[in-house]
Amino acid sequence: MSSLVSYEPYVDECTDLFSQRLQEVASAGAYADMGHWLQCYAFDVIGLITYSKRLGFLDRGEDIRGVIAALEDHLWYATFTGIFSWLHKYLFPIRNWLAGPTGTGRAYVMKFTQERIAEHEKEETKAIPVDGMEEGKTSMDFLSKFFKKNADDPKAFTMYHLSMGCVSNMVAGSDTTAISLSAILYYLLKFPQTFETLRQEIDERQREGKIGHYITFKESQEMPYLQAVMKEALRMHPATGLPLERVVPAGGASICDQFFPEGTIVGINSWVAHRNTSVFGPDADVFRPERWLSSDKEKLSLMDRNWMPVSRSTQMSPCSASADRCVVVSTNITPLVHHCLFRHLSQPHQILHLFSLTMDSG
Asked: The domain spanning residue 22 has which CATH number?
């Protein structure tokens, strides 16, 4: 996590531009599709972290070269062929042949990524200074680190690994970041009292001088209500919609009094697990951040062990399942809550789509 915190200046650059775009929308009296804008923001942040170069989504709020559409297409395809995997070897080449030379879905994203890698090789390696680190110390983008790893041991870390690392950032990093931000904002707007309570926590921290213009990941970790809101929103709307699979180890395993032989693929859907009333209480279907502020350490430990919005590791914080996503989410939600006034203009199930915005000058 400590190495990813060094990417905060990349996030801050995109947050400034994101705020500027929202300011322009508010000044024009136009409506804002926050779901779309948050995805544009996520893509540009991932672009900066991966290539030291924004992809340009925030410049005009448009889907650059259809990458968002291609990603949506890939996720739709992966949802079904991930279940009926035997179809993949037949459908994948047919779909890409029909799409033409650019391909479709993941193939399109891979081609787009290869072009970014080629651009990166032509340019001087970029890095930016990191506050609080040794003088002259910089944060190197993922691609530069991947190239270094490849140069150090090209057999262990091939160009294929380099390319797939960048594709993973593009596909997994941008989408989970965008949906996590959207889910948190959705529930904050659906429950105005929660929004106001979080704003009060932010205001109090600012008055005490504990946070500045940019909130750091470390500072966000010291804001209990912010953490509770994030965890509760991602419990209600985890970024993954399919089971998180694991392979049963040698010797097999007994799970819920059922024996599974070694090699069996098992998994649980986090959408189901997160509504377990024996873990999260009888109101598990209700958005209530205060459940994470309980003084019952045993209850909190049980909920933490069963909270898996993206993945599951031995120790979890609101974003340790996807650390880059955590830095982005933690540092973006605070300025949105602090500086934006939203007026909902659509139906409840479309709560992120149509908003009029007012930006304060604070």
From this structure: 1.10.630.10
Task: Classify the phi-psi angles of 56: left when phi > 0, otherwise alpha if psi is within -120 to 50, otherwise beta.
Answer: left
Residue length of the chain = 362
Q: Which token pair is 295?
A: 């003084």
Mean pLDDT (whole number) for 25-31: 81
What is the distance between the alpha carbons of residues 150 and 144, in angstroms, rounded to a whole number? 10
Contacts of 251 (CB under 8 A, 6+ apart): 262
Please give the share of the chain, as a percent, with pLDDT higher than 70. Answer: 82
CA–CA distance, 218 with 331 (Å, rounded to integer): 10
Domain span holding position 176: 2-234+331-359
Any domain includes 275: no
Q: How far is CA 37 from CA 33, 60, 166, 168, in A?
A: 6, 10, 22, 21
Number of independent structural domains in the chain: 1
What SS3 class is residue 310? coil
- Report how far residue 65's alpha carbon sits from residue 55's, in angstroms, rounded to the nearest whole number: 10
